[in-house]
Amino acid sequence: MKIIYQQDEKDCGVTCIAMVLSNYKTKIPIYKLREISGTDLHGVSALGIKETLELFGLICQIGQANNEVWQETDLPLPLIAHVISEQKYPHYVVVYKVKGNQLFIADPAKGKVKKSIEEFAKEWTGVLLLASPKESYQPSIEKVDGLSSFLPILLEQKALIFHIVLASFFITLFGIISSYYFQGLLDNVIPNQAKSTLNMISIGLLFVYLFRVVFEYSRSYILMVLGQRMSMSIMLNYFKHVLSLPLNFFATRTSGEIISRFLDANKIIDALASATLSIFLDIGMVILVGTTLAIQSTPLFLLTLAFLPFYILVVYIFIKSYDKANTEEMSAGASVNSSIIESLNGIETIKSYNGEAVVYQRVDSEFVTLMKKSFKSGILDNIQQALKLAIQLISSALILWLGSIYVIEGKISLGQLITYNALLVFFTEPLQNIINLQVKMQKARIANKRLNEIMSISSEKGDKEKTLNISETYFNKEIKLEKVTFSYNMKLPILKEISFKIAPYSKVALVGVSGSGKSTLAKRFCCKVF
User: Fold this and answer.
1) What integer pLDDT is reported at residue 184 of this predicted model?
2) Residue 431: predicted pLDDT
3) Fewest C-beta in 10 Å: which of 107, 151, 418, 514?
4) What pLDDT does 529 receive?
């Protein structure tokens, strides 16, 4: 079963829905499942999960069971189980396989785990949601915009990208030219004691280095401008979209979740900038310098290429681990941001109830979790970088070893070996840039998924435009409510069969105890507040 990780701590229910649907070849974006299931700041109810699964063509039953249920041979799997997490919060997990005394669990917060029936019983509340497809079931797939949706933003900056690529090309060209300086020095100038030639090519090399510094500065400056323009396009568009969302969006999400996604955009910008350089420059440099290296020494170049599969293998091994670590780190970061922002917003209440210690303890616990997740990501990155460095050092040592043998045998000159080794940097660096895109692209993909959860929600702009076109005479009529019932997200109704009339231009006071539904009733008069 394919594991899907939750984006925020209250998303465990909808993530379990997504995993069950995915098992039956139906793929629906998390943001849409949130809206359908009625997920709010407290998560989703079992009823919300049941009705969502049934909406997509599954039969779902909610039941209370004990450990004997795992011995049933006709138990429909995967199923959703309600548990109490280690942090003592209600949580949902998917049980996708039962083998003997072992349960195979897809936990949206932790990934795939295996537990004994007795161990699972300690956290299980006994509630199960059993789902199976109807006879008329048809899989459905809704695609979500990927990183390619940002291509128009990149194309708007094609002039800057062209100048960056041009500057990078000249920087590499100057590096290649300076590498041949050593070959000429060792093979011709020093053996022939040509001082005048030495002075001439050395002065030329100084000018080459000077131009290289100028182009390095120019490229860094243009890259900075490109980054700022992309930041403005992505971040401001995100904030503009957030402002246009209906009020119920803000009632079901914390401020920290919204802000953390705003900050996640930096990962997308970094990945797009790196990908742009790699596509337009690094690939070209690998081909150009690779051809030059092959001309210098074909056997040494073949030895260099022999290590390429090891780089790819190291990247492939870490793909799933990076996905999990990055998702957990971003989710933990959102929780910390939410707690800090909500604590500062409610500081008056916290002070009134003398709750500073409780709030600090909660933030401290969440921050420690964030540090653990961040440390885990750092460890993964360090291990991968260490493996890449080991491959690079071993390849360099073997190339020098074999090259030295060729020099002794007279197959190549010492200058050619030194030049090959110097040129190797201009081959391995862009190659590693392409390979290292994996980490950035994975972070960007997860950040984009989190960003899309909000960007894909329809704004209320259309409703406001329709409201502006309504004639003022429309409000000369009475307002009439007849048997209005309303509940928040499939919960018990706040309003139940409310009926009354309000005459034109009259003033009405809504009176009642706290929590009786006064504000909820007032919001019924707004256009699509909920």
Assistant:
1) 76
2) 81
3) 514
4) 46
Residue 231: the pLDDT is 80
Distance CA 442, CA 436 (A): 10
Cβ pair 489, 39 in contact under 8 A: yes
Q: How many Cβ atoms from other residues are within 10 Å of residue 344's Cβ? A: 10
In one-letter notation, the amino acid at residue 54 is: E
Cα separations in angstroms, 398 against 180, 315, 403, 421, 435: 22, 22, 8, 11, 22
CA distances from 298 to 29, 399, 411, 415 (A): 51, 12, 11, 16
**Which sequence positions are flagged as catalytic?**
12
Q: Structural domains in the chain?
A: 11-133 (3.90.70.10), 147-456 (1.20.1560.10), 472-527 (no CATH)
CA gap 327, 4 in Å, rounded: 10
Burial class (CB in 10 A: 0-12, 13-18, 19+), 355: middle
- Per DSSP, 147 falls in state G
User: 181 φ, ψ to 5°?
Assistant: -60, -40
What gap in Å lies between CA 118 and CA 106, rounded to an integer? Answer: 17
Residues of the chain with pLDDT under 50: 463, 465-468, 470, 528-530
- DSSP-assigned letter for residue 477: S
Report the Cα 385 to chain-centroid distance in Å: 21
Q: So what's the pLDDT on residue 530?
A: 46
Who contacts 106 (Cβ-Cβ below 8 Å, separation ≥6)?
A: 1, 3, 4, 16, 19, 78, 93, 94, 95, 96, 112
In whole angstroms, give the CA distance from residue 157 to residue 442: 23
pLDDT of residue 489: 61
| Rg (alpha carbons) of the chain, rounded to whole number | 31
Supply the DSSP symbol for 67. G
Please tell me the predicted confidence (pLDDT) of residue 427.
84
* Residue among 314, 376, 324, 315 at smallest CA distance from 112: 324
Cα 466 to chain centroid, rounded? 36
Yes or no: say if 293 and 300 are a contact pair by the CB < 8 Å rule: yes
Residue 322 CA to residue 446 CA, distance in Å, equals 10
Strands (E), 304-461: none
